[in-house]
Amino acid sequence: QVQLQESGPGLVKPSQTLSLTCTISGASITTRDYFWSWIRQPPGKGLEWIGYISYDYRVYVSPSLKSRTSISRDTSKNQFTLQLSSVTPEDTAVYYCARELDFDHDLWGQGTQVTVSS
Q: What span, in angstroms and rounded, lies between the C-alpha atoms of 53 and 81?
């Protein structure tokens, strides 16, 4: 059974960098054709796709977040990470990692709440 699990601090101070890790179990991050995404949902708003890293190391980030976002992976640990710099309270959200195949996010982590506050 394939599972995704997000981890990271639940509280980040304004102007700091938010760092989250997604650990994949039951499948390899290098499996062909899979893309590994980060998605967030601010309170009272819809889902916002942040970006992905692919099975072959391609990275794509939403233009609206590109200047502040880094997505990377550790193949040896079967993990991928999100770093979002210079956070503000508007970055408060539930953050999800997800697997994408053929433009469909078919598997999601449970999500982790991140609050930006001093």
A: 9
